[in-house]
Every structure is written in structure tokens, then in C-alpha cells.
């Protein structure tokens, strides 16, 4: 049976810290837009306080999450236990985006300083997503399979290195400027 929490208590913090992957879901306002669900990894998640978290948003094929957050702020972050006892934790909240060219970016990225970000180059980070969490829940996760992590992928590092700063800027302009639904993504 699932339980609601008023804050990220130590057992939940420990569970979240032990997970190698998490999922982020957002949607545009209205009934006609596309719901987006993205997997994340690479040591990119931090708990900032009892009801505040953040993660690094890295270059990708789209900018759905950023566009949705800028439009309405709604976000759900989910963690599943793929090893050990079954468990799912969901964090529902209001997200905000700090892009790398904004003045607050240096402060926003600081909680990630010194992290071992295997396969992640600094240039791959497009933004920091902060989430003010208003609903914290867990569930059994009995239907989630047991799986073993073989390794982190190193593709992001080589992909960004091969493009360089100018190539990344072109990629953002071509692939990340607007969402599937035409919402503004990266400027």
C-alpha cells in the first residue's frame, strides 16, 4: 500500500540516492498536446532540501520538458527499484528551468560540482531543472522487473566533444528550439 509524505525523509533520500535511473514526465497545457516521459541517469539528480530537488538537463533530441515547464511548470519525477526490495517513489511538483546562459546558472549547477558525472561533459548540460515538490508518494513496485546495471553509457561525452561549441549551438537551434507542439524550447 502506498504512502504519502510531507517531505523527503531519510529512508526516501537513501532510496533515491541508490537509483541509477529516474524518469521525468511533463505535459503541455490543454488536452491536445503530447505528454513527454524521459529517462535520466549519469549522476544528474540532487536533493536540495525537504521538498526541493534538481537535476541536470542534458542535450537531447528534443526540448519537451523545458518547453512544458516554461509553459505550466507541471512535473512528476519517478524512481523505480530495479534491484533490492520493490519500490516506486514519485515526486509531483512545480519545475523551473535555469538555462546555462542565465545569470543564476552558476549557482544552480553548484550542487553538482565535484560529482563523478561519468559520460557527461560540462558542455552537454543545457540547463538545471529545479522542482518544488508538493506531493511525495511511494508505491509497491511489485511489477517492476529486477535488472542489473552493466555500465553508464559514454556516448554523450563523445557526441558533444565531436560537435564542439559551434556544432552544439547549431544542434540546439535546429532540434531544440521548439517542442513537438510548437512551444518555445531553447532560445
Please state the average pLDDT score: 92
Number of H/I helices:
4
Proportion of strand residues: 25-35%
**Secondary-structure class:** alpha+beta
Instruction: Count the domains.
Output: 1
Helix content: 10-25%
Distance between the ends: 44 Å
What does the radius of gyration come to? 17 Å
- Overall shape: it is globular
Element order: H for helix, E for strand? EHEEEEHEEHEH
Major sheet: size, sense and barrel closure?
Answer: 8 strands, antiparallel
Could you give me the name of the CATH homologous superfamily? Electron Transport, Fmn-binding Protein, Chain A
CATH first level: Mainly Beta
Stretches with pLDDT under 50, minimum 5 residues: none
CATH hierarchy: architecture: Roll
Number of strands: 8
CATH topology: Pnp Oxidase, Chain A
Structural notes for this entry:
Strand 4 and strand 5 form a beta hairpin. It is globular and about 50 Å long. The chain has one domain: Electron Transport, Fmn-binding Protein, Chain A (Pnp Oxidase, Chain A), CATH 2.30.110. It starts with a strand and ends in a 12-residue tail after the last helix. 23% of the residues lie in helices and 32% in strands. The protein is α+β, with helices and mostly antiparallel strands and 187 residues long. Strands 1, 2, 3, 4, 5, 6, 7 and 8 form an 8-stranded antiparallel β-sheet that branches.
Question: What is the strand and helix layout of this fold?
Answer:
Blueprint: E1 3-5, H1 10-18, E2 22-26, E3 36-40, E4 45-49, E5 52-58, H2 64-71, E6 74-80, E7 88-99, H3 105-109, E8 125-139, H4 155-175
Antiparallel strand pairs: 1-8, 2-3, 2-6, 4-5, 5-8, 6-7, 7-8
Amino acid at each position: 500500500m502506498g504512502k504519502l509524505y510531507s517531505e523527503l525523509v531519510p529512508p526516501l533520500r537513501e532510496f533515491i540516492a541508490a537509483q541509477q535511473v529516474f524518469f521525468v514526465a511533463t505535459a503541455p497545457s490543454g488536452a491536445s498536446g503530447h505528454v513527454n516521459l524521459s529517462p535520466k541517469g549519469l549522476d544528474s539528480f540532487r536533493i536540495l532540501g525537504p521538498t526541493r530537488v534538481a537535476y541536470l538537463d542534458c542535450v537531447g533530441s528534443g526540448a519537451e520538458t523545458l518547453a512544458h515547464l516554461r509553459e505550466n511548470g507541471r512535473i512528476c519525477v519517478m524512481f523505480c527499484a530495479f534491484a533490492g526490495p520493490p519500490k516506486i517513489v514519485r515526486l509531483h511538483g512545480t519545475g523551473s528551468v535555469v538555462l546555462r546562459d542565465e545569470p543564476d546558472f552558476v549557482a544552480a549547477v553548484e550542487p553538482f560540482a565535484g560529482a563523478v558525472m561519468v559520460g557527461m561533459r560540462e558542455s552537454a548540460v543545457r540547463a538545471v531543472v529545479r522542482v518544488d515538490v508538493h506531493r511525495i508518494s511511494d508505491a509497491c513496485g511489485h511489477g517492476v522487473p529486477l535488472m542489473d546495471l552493466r555500465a553508464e553509457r559514454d556516448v554523450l561525452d563523445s557526441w558533444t566533444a565531436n560537435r564542439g561549441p559551434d556544432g552544439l549551438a547549431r544542434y540546439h537551434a535546429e532540434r531544440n528550439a521548439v517542442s513537438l507542439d510548437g512551444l518555445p524550447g531553447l532560445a
